[in-house]
Design the sequence.
């Protein structure tokens, strides 16, 4: 199946998923809590994507859901809260603007790199194979539901920021905008550099150029920075809930450090022996100047 036909099927599945979630919000039982209504709708939409993944034997159907859902969730919370009372439209506009910028960039990156439904992220078969007979459960829980819950948790500060007036817009909101936009630009540049490198690299060559000379995973660092910006918006609206609104960003950091980065590092070492030299010289996550390459001592008589 070609890329165009594959993207069409993915788009149809996403349209159905969003329609199911919207139908729940419009006609389903009212839980009395906007955040819980959003979570149920989110999980129902995730089940639709899971069904499409199983139908096509490809869990990469879920990949873009990570970036497609947040703008709709934020917009729903804003509109629903505005119907019940006053909200801070200025802060809400800033929050939604940063989220939309991130979503368009990340979804566009996925569309650009997605070759078609003949391809599946290498991590998914690995997870299913490890589960054995419970592979369908692993597919549902590990590949679909847990990432949905992870993103929802990281969206909690958005809920806090857009559903109540909170404090007036101030310097912390400005910092959140700068961090959010800067993080999106960082990931955009990092991904562009990686694509250019992939077109010209030699067999076994490891990437250590541009931003990738300062961090082995600048794309993940930029992604983490985006979620930090959302936490800052939550703090700006309700500083007293600092532990609550920062939990999602902490969980994202744990995801990158304990799961995503170790898996990528292991794969890179298996495929590119020269990657060990990059590990020895280039910082793992937070960008900083690289260490100087070690030189072998000169033998003397």
Sequence:
């Amino acid at each position: 199946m070609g890329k165009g036909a594959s993207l069409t099927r993915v788009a149809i599945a996403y349209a159905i998923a969003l329609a199911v979630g919207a139908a729940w919000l419009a006609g389903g039982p009212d839980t009395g809590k906007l955040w819980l209504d959003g979570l149920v709708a989110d999980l129902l939409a995730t089940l639709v994507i899971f069904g499409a993944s199983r139908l096509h034997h490809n869990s990469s159907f879920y990949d873009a859901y990570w970036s497609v859902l947040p703008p709709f969730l934020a917009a729903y919370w804003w509109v629903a809260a505005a119907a019940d009372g006053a909200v801070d439209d200025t802060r809400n506009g800033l929050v939604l603007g940063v989220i939309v910028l991130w979503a368009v960039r990340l979804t566009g990156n996925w569309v650009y790199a997605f070759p078609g439904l003949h391809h599946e992220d290498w991590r998914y078969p690995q997870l299913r194979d490890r589960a054995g007979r419970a592979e369908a459960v692993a597919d549902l829980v590990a590949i679909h539901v847990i990432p949905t819950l992870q993103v929802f948790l990281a969206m909690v500060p958005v809920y806090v920021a857009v559903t109540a007036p909170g404090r007036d817009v101030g310097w912390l909101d400005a910092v959140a905008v700068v961090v959010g936009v800067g993080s999106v630009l960082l990931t955009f540049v990092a991904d562009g550099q990686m694509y250019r490198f992939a077109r010209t690299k030699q067999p076994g060559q490891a990437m250590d150029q541009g931003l990738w000379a300062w961090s082995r995973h600048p794309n993940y660092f930029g992604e983490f920075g985006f979620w930090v910006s959302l936490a800052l918006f939550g703090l700006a609206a309700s500083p007293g809930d600092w532990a609550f609104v920062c939990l999602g960003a902490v969980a994202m950091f744990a995801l990158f450090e304990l799961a995503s980065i170790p898996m990528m590092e292991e794969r890179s070492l298996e495929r590119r022996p020269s990657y060990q030299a990059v590990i020895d010289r280039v910082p793992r996550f937070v960008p900083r100047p690289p260490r100087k390459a070690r030189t072998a001592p000169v033998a003397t008589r």
About this structure: The mean pLDDT is 92.
